[in-house]
Amino acid sequence: MSGVHGPIKKLLPHASVLLHLLLSVLLGWPSGMRYPLPWGGENMAQSAHFNVLDLNMSIRVEHDRRRRQFTVSLNGSHDRAVLLYEYVGKRTVDLQHTEVPDAYRGRGIAKHLAKAAMDFVVEEGLKAHLTCWYIQKYVKENPQPQYLECILH
What is the pTM of this model? Predict the structure, then answer.
């Protein structure tokens, strides 16, 4: 970094981390590996550890009927996103709550959970109360006729 001075010199280590993350996601490079960078940011990139969902893998939603929840395991760790529901009648469910850990928000995970839950309601011929604000938003943005027919107001 001999020819770089002032504020730009201070930003280069951060640029290394961001470039490493970008290359990891776009090219499928494993996180935590060493990649030489043009300004010698290799060590910073190597030391940066990002617990991110691999954007190249598909998001798999699991349905646990006994616990009445849909889940997505995040990066094979104990972290998970969850959508909870309860039966409030013989053929009626209340889609109550969706939660995605802060570090994973904004990546479409809740959208996959909401879709799985609404598809479950449709496939099982159930009616649904939408207590969860996110599921209300999802249905508003995805007004599938089969979803709208199942919603109780």
Answer: 0.64
